[in-house]
Amino acid sequence: MKTILGISAFYHDSAATILVDGKIIAAAQEERFTRKKHDSSYPFNAVEFVLKFANIKLNEVDQIIFFEKPFLKFERLLETYVAFAPKGFRSFCKAMPTWLKEKLFQKKILFNKLKMHDDKFNDERKIFFSDHHLSHAASAFFPSPFEEAIVLTADGVGEWATTTVAIGKGNNLEIQKEIHFPHSLGLLYSSFTYYTGFKVNSGEYKLMGLAPYGEPIYEDKIKENLIDIKEDGSFHLDQTYFNYATGLTMTSQKFHMLFGQNSRDPKKEELTQFHMDIAASIQKVTEDIMIKLAKSLKEEFNIPNLCLAGGVALNCVANGKILRAKIFDNIWIQPAAGDAGGSMGAALALWHIEQNNPRLVNVTDDMNGSYLGPEYEQKQVEDELKKIGATFEVLSDDELIEKTAYSLSLEEAIGWFQGRMEFGPRALGGRSILGDPRSSNMQKNLNLKVKYRESFRPFAPSILRDDLSEWFNINVDSPYMLIVSDVSKDKIIVMTEDQKKLFGIEKLNIKRSEIPSVTHVDYSARIQTVHEKTNKKYFDLIKRFKEKTGCPIVINTSFNVRGEPIVNTPTDAFNCFMGTELDKLVIGNCYLDKKKQNLNLKKDYATNFELD
Q1: Pair 10, 113 in one domain
Q2: HEC letters along 405-446
Q3: Which of 56, 278, 407, 450 would bridge with 412, disulfide CB 3.0–4.6 Å?
């Protein structure tokens, strides 16, 4: 038995993955254990979990691999400051102590951290380093269902690369082309995230969700000033508009002057139509670049399959546009496309590329539905709930499905905690909040009363795979909620002329389809297809809901409030349940009714977590 431990850490979304004989056994993000969103610290808890799940001690692990090369990153930092000097001296002074103390001598630091798990671990030669974008590319290709594929990765920045193209074939993967820092599609998008008043590295989803409320009226301004896009999709950013290379902010004064406003202060300023139009504009530019890249790569390499990873691959609207353009026969996107997935990619790259181990292609994929995290036995759940003082009843599988489906049909909000926790940013029916998509009020109520977040943010539909093409203009698997598609024409309610004249958020409360709570203002939805094989209990629940209502869809959003990581333990789930206006909580076979709980156990969740 050969084991490899993959680790990503020290930037954002630290994580750990373990492979046994090349098979992905377990993977988890550190934030789920520490309850600190996007936790970047050494993933002690995640490493502990994967080792325990694989039933192995650290000193028995054959190799440990880190997802990037710190020396190359340091080289980029130094060369950037030299190139822009004397500009950026302040941020240079701020960055240096951290690098010299913590990041540069990472092998030694990692060795010391690893010893915390097992004092018998004493072999520094077991520690290896991967390349950041190779880790991303490997996470996209090796678990994919393709023997051969073009692999496109795009994010903020790794060591030097910001966008890479690789070709994967069998157990081989080679990077063919790169775009280097400071020219970065991820950092361009994050600059607009910052400009509209959202948090960089977490608010990008908000920007994408805000875009359909606006018109892309600044598209030409962006293309004519900020970015030079070539015919093949490669690009060059004018750095005078940005401040991320050397400064402590993302955008420069010149950027603000171009658009006529300073960046929004979320504590003082509301979102306006201007911000919606800005969001629509950068989203359109991003989609155009991704489609150009996809077309030129298909033309150049003539391979029918595309794999995507890197933070930009989480832009499910752009993914949907690539799919709709029919450039490739098949597309597969790594569900943990950001840095967390780097821990998995680094381990897979070591196993297949460096050690030349053969690869067996799975017709679906090798991600086990991305259910790779911790799970709890029924007895553990009951013991934990009793300890907290929760009131619950234990039901058979069939009773549980029946009661939950009935509760959903009454437009109640359900906390759903089953099986293994998901790896990646999306809840996929393991740690989810569920609702009735037919309700006109559910989107607003879930956002404001349960998630404590902006009312405009859309929710995703989980749909039985066999019913997909009847409800949406798509007929390919989307198990990881990473593709956006339009609602079928016969399910749409066309807006009146007066409604069409409404601006921005005013459009939110207009019923646009038979499933209004998962239909975005542009008649689109971010789809998750549910398969019996990967998540039977969730599949059975939606099937029972369909039998009751004729609707094979439920609202699925992550089980957390704004600013909180997705719940990990039954205690996390109960705390979130008691701190929000969720009506019911279902953990394993335990069924909890809010009305029957001790009110002294109520939590103040509305102000518990900082803005995300």
Answers
A1: yes
A2: HHHHHCCCCEEEECCCCECCCCCCCCEEEEECCCCCCHHHHH
A3: 407
Question: Are residue 190 and residue 228 in the same domain, yes or no?
Answer: yes
CB neighbours (10 Å) of residue 275? 23
The C-alpha R_g of the chain, in whole angstroms, comes to 24
d(CA 410, CA 281): 39
For the question of whether the overall pTM of this predicted structure is more than 0.85, the answer is yes
459: domain range? Answer: 378-601
Q: Round to the nearest angstrom and report the end-to-end CA distance of the chain.
A: 42
CA distance 13 to 225: 32
Q: What are 473-515's pLDDT values in tens digits?
A: 999 999 999 999 999 999 999 877 777 777 666 776 778 899 9
Q: What is the pLDDT of residues 425-434, one digit of tens each?
A: 999 999 999 9
Q: How far apart are CA 310 and CA 326, in angstroms?
A: 22
Asked whether the beta carbons of 133 and 178 are under 8 A apart, the reply is: yes
Answer yes or no: do 396 and 322 share one domain: no
Do both 404 and 522 map to the same domain?
yes
What residue type is 191 in one-letter code? S
Instruction: Give the CATH number, domain containing residue 295.
Output: 3.30.420.40
Helix, strand, coil: what percent of the chain each, to 5? 40, 20, 40
Residues 122, 128, 130, CA angle at the centre, nearest 5°? 160
Please give the tally of structural domains in the chain.
3
Cα separation, 12 vs 37, in Å, equals 9
Beta bridge partners of 310: none
> Are 450 and 421 in a shared domain?
yes
Nearest-angstrom CA–CA distance, 426 and 347 = 22
Pair (359, 449) in one structural domain: no
